[in-house]
Amino acid sequence: MARSLFRLGGEACGWGCTAAWCRAPVAPACHLAPTGDAGKPRLVASRRAEDLPVSQTGAGRDRATANHAGAHGPAVRGWCPDAWRPMAAGDGLIVRVKPRLGRLSADDLAALGEAAIAHGNGLIDMTRRANLQIRGVRDDSWRPLLDRLLDLGLVDHDARREGARMMMVAPDWREGDDSHRIARQLLDRLDELPDLPGKMGFVIDAGAAPLLPGEAGDFRIERARDGGLILRAEGRAQGVPVDSGREVDALLALARWFVESDGARAGRMARHDAPLPDWATGTTEAAAPRPRPVPGAWDGGMAYGLPFGRIDARHLLDAPAMRLTPWRMLLAEGQLPGLCADAADPLIHVEACPGAPACPQASVETRDLARQLAPHVAGRLHVSGCAKGCASSMPADVVLTGRDGRYDLAFHARAGSAPVRPDLTATDLLAHFGAC
């Protein structure tokens, strides 16, 4: 490529970026002048399926939702979908399955794949909380799908317990180790939890060193530098030592304190500024985190990256047992041909939500554009259909945020950050990054 088209040695591109990872053209080659739920029900949580009311349906409601999002910003849900309380999207209902301990057996995977094909559109998404979401579920298929998931034991028969089962476990746990032991004990004591805001959850990260320090959670058990375990409230840099066998007692007590101290008003532990009680206040630091797995071989088999966190349900029909991760990666206890085991694949370093038209809050297409840009962005790329940034809450080197049918471009930022260049088309971006 001629030097007149791409930057070398710290030259600035037309938008002022000098980062080494940027492959955008230099200013003379820039194409831009530099500048300073249709017919889908919404279901409401209930302990009994027959108590779940269905709202009125119709295209007008979805248009109103989309217009409101465009005028006032994206609507942030105060809860996460699950099997008892699906969420309407542009391609149908989303039904979330939360595997216990983040693992599914080969039989579970095959049955889940069959259910996704029979009752949805055959596509399954992995979430940032290491859950799976069956997409495209038809209105009249939700109850048969729920019944199947209940029969398989993948969903709790009590809707409240299912909603409370918001737990992320270090995915490389082994039978009988601390992560496995604590997570099992917490599952057995879910009925002791107070009513918490819908997005709150627990992180059990008790391996040899933490593996999940940057992942979503509110009440955490982590390995300390001295080899012991600590209880840490999200948003606090340090934790307090906890005795072996008392970890779940400590987690439950912290959750109760959160409610009693009016934490529900803040919604999340990290936003709750009340001083912690003395028994939860400490100065013990977590151990330095371990490197997370990458696509390729891991101790238990093969790790596979899922571009955009999506998998065709047909892949699950003959799959080995799997561990789920919050990194859009499956840890297979064996091998599964047809999935990506190449850590150098550009799509592994891209985050993109479903975008329009699958999500009614998105105003732009996301994943086709991300696929075209991925080989031309050396750092992390995040393409978000709206300012919520559902695919990733972490900063990325290049961020595109959808707004009113166009894209805002930012560098080293999160979705919705103030753009360096607003109001771009997909054609503008493809030309700028040399992808066309």
Automatic annotation (TrEMBL):
Question: Any idea what this protein is called?
Answer: Nitrite/Sulfite reductase ferredoxin-like domain-containing protein
- Tell whether Amino-acid biosynthesis is among the UniProt keywords: no
Which superkingdom? Bacteria
User: Cross-referenced SUPFAM superfamilies, in alphabetical order?
Assistant: Nitrite and sulphite reductase 4Fe-4S domain-like (SSF56014), Nitrite/Sulfite reductase N-terminal domain-like (SSF55124)
For this UniProt record, the keywords arranged alphabetically read as follows: 4Fe-4S, Heme, Iron, Iron-sulfur, Metal-binding, Oxidoreductase
Q: Which residues form the Nitrite/Sulfite reductase ferredoxin-like domain?
A: 86-150
**Pfam families in the cross-refs:** NIR_SIR_ferr (PF03460)
Q: Where is this region: Disordered?
A: 49-72
- Give yes or no: UniProt keyword Transferase: no
Enumerate the Gene3D superfamilies for this protein.
3.90.480.20, Sulfite Reductase Hemoprotein, domain 1
Care to name a GO molecular-function term for this sequence?
oxidoreductase activity
Q: Which InterPro entries match?
A: NIR_SIR_4Fe-4S (IPR051329), NiRdtase/SiRdtase_haem-b_fer (IPR005117), Nit/Sulf_reduc_fer-like_dom_sf (IPR036136), NO2/SO3_Rdtase_4Fe4S_sf (IPR045854)
Q: What is the lineage of its organism?
A: Bacteria, Pseudomonadati, Pseudomonadota, Alphaproteobacteria, Sphingomonadales
